[in-house]
Amino acid sequence: MNKDRIFADKTQAVSDFNFGEKTAEVFEDMLDRSIPLYRELQRMLGEIAVEFAVSGSNVYDLGCSNGITLDTLDHAIRGAGKSVQLVGVDYSKAMLEKAEQRFTSRGADAQPKFVLRDLNESCPIENASVVLLNLTLQFVRPLFRDRLVRSICDGLNENGCLILVEKVLGNDSLFNRTFIKFYYDMKRRNHYSDMEIAQKREALENVLIPYRIDENFELLKRNGFGSVDVFYKWYNFAGLLGVKTGR
To answer: Which fold has domain 21-243?
Structure first.
């Protein structure tokens, strides 16, 4: 696993964060060191997906990056004896190439369908039992988030689910500052320097736009999800589960 040193050197002008070749090369190390409880979160995503996946349907990972979550879904769902078509969607060619490489040695029945698409331009969803937005919606411009979530709900079969994991804002400025402090403390424990933390924060400033948990909750509810609850919370990170129930 290549070590994440993207922001290790001092830069005069920090560019906006992107998911191009440099990020794709170090992405798994970045996830392990930057996302709290990431491996346990992966296990939870697989566990929830198994509960809602229906044989003969599609399971989408929107913003699939290098395929790590698709890998989790593949092992969990096939291990439960269910047969689905995995679909990975991302706007980064470099990430999709990594995702395709991850599955090259597997049989034809385990090959996901990969789609190059910018989620800001929406994404057709059809015959879906599970859709994941794992640390993805925060990178979609707020103007387009309702449209995307509505299209997901429209493309889900009855009792299908959306699994949404996001970086979130606190409901109070005091909590927000405190939770961010704890998050940066975690990154320091994982051997990121203060300079790396500061430069990545600057790179993400205009790219990653988080909502509060209640804003994400309402986003799902007003776009067709009858049942919504929180399944994961760590300071300024949260996971929501929305289910399309009969109306």
So the answer is: Rossmann fold (3.40.50)
